[in-house]
Amino acid sequence: MLFSIHLPRFARTCLLLCGIAMPGVAAAGNADTAQSGPTQQAVQKVLYGGHTRRDYYTELLQLALSYANGQTYELQASGLDLPKQRAFDLMNAHQGIDVLFGSVSRERLARYRGVPFPILRGYNGWRVALINRHSPDILRGIHSKQHLSRLSAGQFLTWSDTQILRHNGLLVATSSDANGLYGMLQRGRIDYFPLSVLEIAEELHKHPNPDLMIDPHLLLVYPTATWFYVAKDNQALAAALLQGLQQAERDGSFDKLFQRYFGAALQHLQLEQRSRITLENPLLPADVTVK
Q1: How is domain 8-120+225-251 classified at the architecture level of CATH?
Q2: 123-222+270-278: which CATH number, 3.40.1050.10, 3.30.930.10, 3.40.190.10, 3.20.20.70?
Q3: I need a labelling partner for 139 at 20 to 30 A (CA). Which of 60, 76, 93, 120 fits?
Q4: Which residue has the higher pLDDT, 143 or 43?
């Protein structure tokens, strides 16, 4: 999924689109010239995929770039709605996108420059399932992968989760239509549909269905990290983002932003009261920190 960056560079673009003036914050990409007092200062535009929006990722980018010293970043939506792999390739070729986010894998690290900071604190690998309301206890008493393998999970065809679940011996039915998975669950073609604890409540809200509910019993956990990515040769932007993210972590502003977006949802899921099954992630390099 593409994200909008609402940071100095991204942030500035977003604000400019809304007709709001704001002191410059720097980025790395296409250089413009902006007035900064009596002297002129180069402004680096940072383009993110999709259209202008405000969400966790754009605010985090804005926060990280706000710590930049000696450079002004201007966040701007690219206006490009593309499949994720196509967006990554355009980013690497410097064709309209400067930064994306995604899970960490050996393949991505070989092709693109990752910013080694776990922006979701590892929670993207914590999975709770949507289930059919007519079978509310289908995951109750499930304590092992062997027990879970008797049931069928639903996943989107190209999601990395599909590979991870299958690697752990679990039965997975896939669909090339993400929205179709909700219908599969409603019709009983799959038994459960695991989603990130950070997104499951929002997803159910976006796909309201009286036959679906959030399972209250099981938590699946596999190690994963979600990073920002830039083009392989864009070392300057990667360094600026990493420095800003680390400073935001040190001064507590990163945690405040994370809690504002996800704290209530995590608390509502009562994760500590669930049965927990740990899965292996064959896609994650062994030296990557997930939290």
Answers
A1: 3-Layer(aba) Sandwich (3.40)
A2: 3.40.190.10
A3: 120
A4: 143
